[in-house]
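Friendly challenge for the regulars: who can give me the structure tokens for this chain first? No prize, just bragging rights.
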Amino acid sequence: MALVKPGEIFKKAYQEGYALGAFNVFNLESIQAVLQAAAMERSAVIVQVSMGTRKYVGDVERFVKLIAMMAEPLTVPVCIHHDHCADFETCQKSIDSGFASVMVDGSMLTFEENIRLVRKVADYAHAKGVWVEAELGSLPGFEDDFFSEENHYTDPDDVVEFVRRSGCDSLAVAVGTSHGGIKADRDLTIDMERLQKISQNLPGYPLVLHGGASLTAAYIDTINRYGGKVESMKNVPERLIKETVRSGVCKVNMDVDNFNAYTAAVRKLMAERPEIYDPRKYSAVGREAFMAEVRHKMRDVVLSSGRY
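First reply, four minutes later:
Bragging rights claimed.
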């Protein structure tokens, strides 16, 4: 089955009441972790590339080919998606590089400017059979190296017009999550009433939730116990992320928990085994921790395990 378009897996997810995890990858080990997790959980998966990873790997077209080659033997569906493309040129290059899906980030634009940008991308993408995710509203927190304090919730009254005029295939909504967490005294929460209204206004339409990592405290504690200085942040707990799949959410972006799991495992090993110098040994430990966290998200949060 392997490589698919998002529409093929979103329809099944919507009908059966689960969502697909979208997991950012950045190197060989992270790709292995996500794909092995999908195979072991018998789950479809979205392998996601961020703008930060695009800069890190250099040649994004070769990186897409690497993901595709590694996904080829799998019997579960795999979709390769580019997250947060902020302009037409980046979207165009991503489409031409082989991504099955691109996300147009016009969240900092006006309503009309956002529509125009997404429409231009959609016209180009659809001619090449590529899926387009758009965003209406914006989330606070870090996206790669950029931090935003702004939290503009998606207005349920705007979504029908936006989808119709922009031509997007799925819509990322702002209903309470954050990118990478924010400083707060308590966990963030989901505005379920707002999400349900959006879903009611767009029946059968796939919604996307960004900022789906819950910032597991145990990983941060381990990192800091073994020499790290990672600041504790707050985001939406997993039980609330799980509830969103009942309201039309078909894709959940989950990133930071996987990275923290990887880093915690590597730091612990390096502290306990200071004689290790072979990067394969600590990279393997990081990969296993990354994979275990992805499996947990599939099984216990987005409920996609055992569907294929």
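The longest helix spans residues 279-301. Confidence is low (pLDDT under 50) at residues 141-149. Your move, everyone else.
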